[in-house]
Design brief:
mainly alpha
């Protein structure tokens, strides 16, 4: 097995891991955020009354539970849209990466995206640190492991030039 094959294997693994783990993580994120919005619609009357009273107290009678519920539902939709956008970026980067795996001169693509994903995704993954769940593990894989594979593979591609 040549060193070129090893380098391509690292980058291919990084691309596939990025897309697969990203899809799992973001799909769970969409599901979770939209389920929060659905749960607010089925709130028990006692819980609604407590929320209404707390909102009235905090806003000086200007807003009630309905405003809080609408804000939460809007926020849950916004988070779901953000998850879909992140998923689209991960899929595009993964697919573009698979096309560039066999071209050592394209090492900069992997190096730049590895650093960008590690900075933005890795910091977020380490701050959340929920590694006891499927979403937490998937988040760690796409946000830390895949970018490290990108960076290591890119540096090996650069050496091969």
């Amino acid at each position: 097995m040549t060193s070129q094959t090893n380098e391509n294997a690292l980058l291919k693994a990084g691309c596939i891991l990025l897309m697969a783990a990203g899809a799992v993580c973001q799909a769970i994120g969409v599901w979770n955020s939209l389920s929060v919005g659905r749960q607010t619609q089925n709130m028990e009357s006692e819980m609604y009354d407590n929320l209404n009273q707390a909102m009235q107290q905090q806003t000086g009678g200007q807003a009630g539970a309905d405003v809080a519920i609408q804000a939460l539902q809007g926020l849950s939709v916004l988070v779901a849209v953000l998850c879909v956008v992140v998923l689209a970026v991960l899929l595009v980067v993964g697919l573009m990466g698979l096309k560039r795996v066999d071209k050592p001169e394209k090492y900069r693509f992997f190096l730049i995206w590895g650093i960008v994903l590690l900075v933005f995704g890795g910091v977020g993954a380490l701050l959340v640190a929920d590694f006891a769940s499927i979403r937490g593990i998937a988040n760690l894989l796409w946000a830390v492991v895949a970018p490290i594979l990108f960076i290591v593979g890119a540096l090996q591609q650069k050496k091969a030039l």
